[in-house]
Specification:
This protein is mainly alpha-helical. The chain is 55% helix and 0% strand. 22% of the residues are buried.
């Protein structure tokens, strides 16, 4: 079994999703902040957490991506259909400084 490489995994998925280098950097920051946050409970694999981070970032920054798309891409590239489940992060996400939803203009 090979060791999970979040940066390599992210670059492959980001390329498929048309994300920029800035997006990749922001997603890695979010991933690491959640992973190392005191209140994060390791009830998600690191691969699952990375997919959660991609999903959260993209949808919070007007780059919509679906659960189905991420699941299909993870299956295509890595042989395992991993589904993002950001609701499993609980209160951790709300405590992070780097995460903020964009303001809605009316």
């Amino acid at each position: 079994m090979s060791k999970f490489n979040p940066k390599g995994y992210l670059h492959i998925l980001a390329s498929e999703l048309g994300l920029s280098a800035k997006d990749v950097g922001s997603i890695m920051i979010l991933y690491e902040e959640i992973l190392f946050h005191d209140s994060f409970k390791a009830n998600r694999s690191r691969r699952g957490l990375l997919l959660d981070s991609i999903y959260i970032y993209c949808n919070a920054n007007a780059k919509p991506v679906t659960v189905k798309t991420l699941k299909e891409l993870s299956k295509k590239h890595f042989g395992v259909a991993t589904q993002p489940r950001p609701s499993r992060l609980g209160g951790t996400l709300h405590q992070l400084q780097s995460f903020s939803k964009p303001s809605r203009r009316t």
